[in-house]
Structures are given as C-alpha cells and as structure tokens.
Amino acid sequence: MPADSVKSGAVPCALCGGSVFKPALDCEDFSFVRCVSCGLVQRNPQPVRDEIIARYSAVYGGDYLSYELENEAAFLKLQRLALRDAKFDELEKTLFRAKEPPSVIDVGCATGALLADLRDQGWRVTGVEISPCAEHAKKERRLDVRNIPFEENKFPQTHFDVVLASHLIEHLNDPASFLTEANRVLKEGGRIFITTPNISGFQARLYGGGWRSAIFDHLYLFSVRTLSKMLKKTGFKIERIRTWGGLAAGLAPPCLKKSADILAKRFGCGDVMVVRAGKIL
After folding, report:
1. What are phi and psi of 203, to 5 degrees?
2. Fewer CB atoms near the end CB (10 Å): N or C, the chain?
3. How far apart are CA 238 and CA 276, in angstroms?
C-alpha cells in the first residue's frame, strides 16, 4: 500500500487536545507539526486507524517478517540494553520473590524473541502484534500472541506485572488511549517500560526532517518532556529515564561516534529513550 494512497484526517493534539500547530519537521512527502500549547510533535493530518492496520498487514508482510528474523538477535540485544538502563533486572529480582511467577505483556512484540527469552527465565508471557510476525511467534515459538490491537483484547483488569512497548507508541493514532489501557491492565504497583525515538535528542536537532526517525509510519515523535507528561496524565509516575545514541553508525569515524555516544548518554540527549513508569496507587 503506497504511502500516498493512505487515507488521512486532521486530529487534535493527542496530549492537550489543542488545535493550533506550527511546522516542526519538513520531510520529503509529508511533515510533522508541533502543538503550540504543549509542544507535542505529531503528523497532522495523519493516516486513520483502519488504514494504519491495513498498511501494517499489507506493507509489513513476508518481507518484513524476513527482515525481523534476520535482525532479531541485534534487536533483542538492543531491547535488553534498554531494559538494563531502565533497571528492569532489579525489578525482576523483586517480582520473582512472590509466590507465583510474574506476568508480562509485550505490545508490538514482533517475532516474539524477547518474550521467548523472558519465558525461558520463568516469566508468564503474553504478546500483541498486528503484523504477520504474530503467526511466526505463535507457531514457531508457541507464544500466546494476540493479533488485534491492544485495546480490543479486553484483558482482565490488574492482570499484568509489567507492560513492555518497544518502538510502538510512536506508531499509534491514540497513544494516550494505549497508556490508559496499559494502566488498567497493570496490577497495583505495576510498571510500564517504553522505548521510543527522542525528538529532543541531538540527532533530531541536527538532521531535522532528515532525521532517521522522521518517517511516514511514525505518527508521533515524543520528547522526554511530552512523553513524561502523557504518562503522568494517564496515571503513571516516572521512575527512570535514560537516552542513548549520539551519532548513527557510519556517519562519523568510530572514535568520534564513541565520544558522541558517551556524551549523549551522560547529558540525556540521545537519539532513543527508555522510560520506566509505575502505576500510581
């Protein structure tokens, strides 16, 4: 499904409901705008929900599954590093002191590599994935993966200890609805871990509309501030935020990239961020 054939419509700001925007990023065939009230950057107009679901089924078909399988070892390593930065291991130790194994849901779980890894460590695992990768996760890894949008599954209230969402929230038409549902299905004191591009990072500021995360399928580009505000608005307390990535591989000599990566992580201006937040009791 070509990008220019996707139906779109104007939407208010997903964070504050504002209707006044100014230009933010001018990309090749589309653009992002910034809400003048709260600063959230989003596509507007943006593809409608049904078109988004159809696009993932059409565009992210067999070729996408092959891509995910070829790169899943690298992606799993990156996911694990992000969770380590967010102190997932410390939470894991605490949860495994309980009488029954902890439960986790990975929304946007792709081929299920991370879920399989967590299952091997004793977690009770569930996944959500609307692309054809879901079938691979179910058949090849025997995982419980649902292939309809998260909110439509109607999971029991206060059911999961942890919600994971890696490179998902920027793709959603209604990120606040996703966070509200995540809060509902989490147990009292449960945690959510979100990994997403950071528009307040150095690379976004340097490259503008040419930034590697300013792509058609990203409907929102969060900063540390706007994502924190949305999490707080939907019933979460921020516990930890870390960013990483100073310069993309291949864009600078290795020695310069290493220095840029160290500085970006130290000063919180990395290209990607991970946020750990707890459900407010």
Report:
1. -65, -40
2. C
3. 6
